[in-house]
Amino acid sequence: MIGEGQFSRALMAIEEGSAEVTRDGEHLADLGPGDIFGEAGMLDDTLRSATVTATSPLKLISLGHFEVKRLKKNAPEVYARIEDLVAERG
């Protein structure tokens, strides 16, 4: 789905299914419904810091740069929570 070192083009939220997060081949986390990924690159305009691989069929919600910027303006509490996640995972 996304690869470590790639450009970040979207923040994604898992609606259904599961995925695995790895960095340098090392397992970091398992993701499921309600989890998001790709947030760090979207906020900091950096390359992807990890690889996320589907472990079952996924249904995703994808937010591009424009939608994330709109969140900051129209839903600052949601944007702040995403910033908190970036800090926690940093």
Describe it.
With 90 residues, the chain is α+β, with helices and mostly antiparallel strands. The chain has one domain (11-89): Jelly Rolls, CATH 2.60.120.10. Helices cover 33% and strands 31% of the residues. The strands form 2 sheets. A 3-stranded antiparallel sheet has the order 4-1-6. Helix 2 (65-74) packs across helix 3. The protein is globular. The chain starts with 10 loop residues before the first strand and ends with a helix.
CATH architecture annotation: Sandwich
Q: What is the percentage of strand-forming residues?
A: 25-35%
According to CATH, the fold-level topology is Jelly Rolls
The major beta sheet can be summarized as: 3 strands, antiparallel
What is the terminal-to-terminal distance?
21 Å
Tally the helices.
3
Counted beta strands:
6
How many domain modules? 1
Strand order of the largest sheet: 4-1-6
> What sequence of helices (H) and strands (E) makes up the elements?
EEEEHEEHH
> Which structural class should the secondary elements be placed in?
alpha+beta
Helix content bin: 25-40%
Taking pLDDT < 50 over at least 5 consecutive residues as the criterion, the unreliable ranges are none
User: What is the CATH C-level name?
Assistant: Mainly Beta
Features:
alpha+beta, globular, 31% strand, 3-stranded antiparallel sheet, Jelly Rolls, 90 residues
Layout of helices and strands, plus pairs?
Elements: E1 11-16, E2 19-23, E3 26-31, E4 36-37, H1 39-44, E5 51-54, E6 59-63, H2 65-74, H3 76-89
Antiparallel strand pairs: 1-4, 1-6, 2-3, 2-5
Helix pairs in contact: 2-3
